[in-house]
Amino acid sequence: MAATASPGTTASSHGQTPKSWYQQPYLWVLTAIVCGVLTGWLRPGVGIALEPVGTTFVSAIKMLITPIVFLTIVAGIGGVDSLRRVGRVGLKSLVYFQAGTLVALAVGLAAVNLFQPGAGVHARPGELHLVGDAAQYVKSGENQSWWHFLTDIVPSSAVGAFTEGNILQVIFLAVLFGIALKAVGPVGVPIVDGVNRLSGVVFKILHYIMLAAPVGAFGAMAFTIGKYGISTLTGLGRLIGLFYGTSLFFVLVVLGGVLALLGINILRLLRHLREEFLIVLGTSSSESALPRVMVKLEGLGVRRDIVGLTVPTGYSFNLDGSSLYLSLAAVYIAQATDTLLSLPQQLGLLAVMILTSKGSGGVTGAGFIALAATLSTVGTVPAAGIMLIFGVDKFMSECRALTNLAGNSVATLVVARWEHVLDTARVNRVLRTGIPEPEEEQGNAPAPERAEGCPLRGAKSVG
């Protein structure tokens, strides 16, 4: 994305005057969220009527996600000096994603066994009846095989991947297209240049849409509180509190520990992405912040091909928040229905979740579908128990999205360090000042090949 600046930064790398506090976009988004909560709480009818405001904003963002992902990946692959590097980045990303998923599932499993939020509920599975959207999600989960993400990666048509908004299929097409551009040699150079120019136009459109972020966050939050009500939080307060607390522990301790090994402060990274987190909080969709996160990570100096491959792929394969939710919710249902699960049975659930948690990013009801698929596959926990948590899932989906966003941001930095191309000093400088330093402004020469090694140790920062 040549010369694409991150909207909403404190100052630009081109010497623009820093924005005053009242001009900061994150402040307006936060104000809109608070106003949305008050509107939905005090005037539920008005809040429900505001649903189109939030959904229209999210739809406008999603409209640009597939072209941005496609253009970014193609430009990234087209700009590298060898296809071997592309394959190496992809493989390292998948290895890290798998490790992250396993750790997130284990943390959720440990938390729910330690605090046992479902103990004492004594729900009877025979009296639980699946109705409405919950019944549809369970039906979809029962028909979903553990290997579905492998077969779904190939679209039925090239256009269909874009019209359906399937990020995984768009990634597949973009990688093929980028590899083909490199294979044809000089013939593909003008096309790569055109892709870079087109990326600038698309991100300018994104900038215009993001001006409406406060309005979209207000409408989405007012609808959520107006429809589901704050009172619904009290009945399952222990579960919600445990999920939010576990997610916070995972982000600050687990992800924070990973970044500490890189010499980066997790709190500074979270502060740098505060506007994106607020947009996700207001819209309950991590996809709404995907394009801006990619821009900000490039602004930290992360190489374009790494950002282009790691971030979009992470939205399907690195769902830390969804993994925490799966293990915690499954065992909660077992506890609430007095279903005894031995340690081997819980480990069996975890093994199935490693597969069912993949490839569901951006799908409506993805968390419930993955949970239903897990329970249906294992058969030891009644799938009808999903009704016990259906009423508060909307509130937990926001936490899932926030954790997913944090996990993918950290994953991109780890892969960049693993590739020996992360300038930690530059990253910390940007996190301190808020002034982006895109790769294009520092020179775009490819980093020299280095010996493979551990992603967190023994790697030198390069400038």
Describe this structure as you would to a colleague.
Keywords: Membrane, Symport, Transmembrane, Transmembrane helix, Transport. The chain crosses the membrane at residues 26-43, 63-83, 95-115, 167-184, 205-230, 242-264, 363-390. It is found in: Membrane. Residues 434-463 are annotated as: Disordered. The chain has 22 helices and no strands. The protein is mainly α. It has a single domain, classed as Sodium:dicarboxylate symporter (Proton glutamate symport protein, Orthogonal Bundle), CATH 1.10.3860. The model is unreliable at 1-17 and 440-463 (pLDDT under 50).
Q: Mind telling me which CATH architecture this is?
A: Orthogonal Bundle
**Poorly predicted runs of 5 or more residues:** 1-17, 440-463
CATH overall fold name: Proton glutamate symport protein
Rounded mean pLDDT score: 77
Discrete helix count: 22
Order of helices and strands: HHHHHHHHHHHHHHHHHHHHHH
Taking the sheet with the most strands, its summary is: none
CATH superfamily (homologous) name: Sodium:dicarboxylate symporter
What is the class in the CATH system? Mainly Alpha
- Estimate percent helicity: 55-70%
Using only CA atoms, what is the Rg?
Answer: 22 Å
Tell me the β content.
Answer: under 5%
Question: What structural category arises from helix and sheet content?
Answer: mainly alpha
How far do the termini sit from each other? Answer: 20 Å
Specify the overall morphology.
globular
Number of strands: 0
Number of domains: 1
